[in-house]
Amino acid sequence: MTLRNYIIIVALGSIFTVRAQEEPAAPVFRPPFDFPLTLSGNFGELRSNHFHGGVDFKTQGEVGKPIHCIADGYVSRVLVTPGGYGQAIFITHPNGYTSVYGHVLKFASAVAKVVEEYQYRHETFAVDLKFEPHQVSFKAGEIIALSGNEGYSFGPHLHMEIRCTDTGELIDPLQFYTDKIKDTTPPRASMIMLYPQRGAGVVEGSQRKKSIPVASLGQPVSAWGKIAAGIKAYDYMDGTHNNYGVRSWYSMWIRQKFFRSYSRNWSSSIDVQLRTSDID
């Protein structure tokens, strides 16, 4: 006789806890803009073929907003491409981090001069220039570029990344701006999905995946064997109508067994490439 287990999916709040942002870290970075920061996209959210490796700051629906250097540093790299970042500037800081600013309309004059000279000399539009340390330096707060809508972009905004200089590890920039962004709106889930593992599990007498709306939580679901679980959820932020990816979620208890969820950290640029096993 086959022993059947019953999975009781109780109130959502008791299944897991989601969080939108990390605790503030030690380095201090000033905001890239002088106006209040709001987001059109957050770190780690799913895009069409990758996970987002930075944050997208809104620019009040306009191009040409001054972008301020977030800390002392020097220009280490500049990109000019027809797609991707469009135009991007990399600033290496003495604290071990490098900040990246993408889709910019125009570089500061000292940077633009070097780029334009290279373009004319090599008769090329596309540029991937590595600068010598301190060839062009900026102090925190100085204007390094103007915001734009260049490259693979669907509206004016600033794409900003923070990377560990030595390893290229991508860091969530929001952890440095928790006091600058108002976010009291919690993430919300809309769907739970159960995935019976082929030949090893069954849900409601079938090996097909089963979706469970959050509104139906509390109803018993019969299952046995190995079952994977997924969740459809979005994060939200005060003062905007955007929805954002949920960065992490935590533990689920089913009767006496503990099922571990995960918190994906983007340990390198490779990690932002889409892993099809992570989505449905």
3D structure, described in words:
Mean pLDDT is 77; it is low at 1-25 and 251-277. The strands form five sheets. Strands 3, 4, 6, 7, 8, 10, 11, 13 and 14 form a nine-stranded antiparallel β-sheet that branches. 6% of the residues lie in helices and 36% in strands. The protein has helices at 12-15, 109-122, and strands spanning 5-8, 18-19, 39-41, 55-58, 66-68, 73-80, 87-92, 97-102, 106-107, 127-130, 137-138, 143-146, 157-164, 170-171, 188-203, 210-213, 220-234, 248-249, 252-254, 257-259. The protein has 280 residues and is mainly beta. It contains two helices and 20 strands.
Major sheet summary line: 9 strands, antiparallel
Number of strands: 20
Which residues form runs of ≥5 with pLDDT under 50?
Answer: 1-25, 251-277
Output the radius of gyration. 23 Å
Order of helices and strands: EHEEEEEEEEHEEEEEEEEEEE
The separation of the N and C termini measures 34 Å
Helix count, per DSSP?
Answer: 2
Structural class: mainly beta
Strand coverage percent: 35-45%
| Helix fraction bin | under 10%
Average pLDDT reading? 77
Instruction: Please tell me what the overall shape is.
Output: elongated
Quick recap:
The chain is built from 2 helices and 20 strands. With 280 residues, it is mainly beta.
Which key features would you list for this structure?
280 residues; 20 strands; mainly beta; four-stranded antiparallel β-sheet; nine-stranded antiparallel β-sheet; 6% helix
Write the layout of secondary structure elements.
Blueprint: E1 5-8, H1 12-15, E2 18-19, E3 39-41, E4 55-58, E5 66-68, E6 73-80, E7 87-92, E8 97-102, E9 106-107, H2 109-122, E10 127-130, E11 137-138, E12 143-146, E13 157-164, E14 170-171, E15 188-203, E16 210-213, E17 220-234, E18 248-249, E19 252-254, E20 257-259
Antiparallel strand pairs: 1-17, 2-18, 3-4, 4-13, 5-12, 6-7, 6-10, 6-11, 7-8, 8-13, 9-12, 13-14, 15-16, 15-17, 19-20
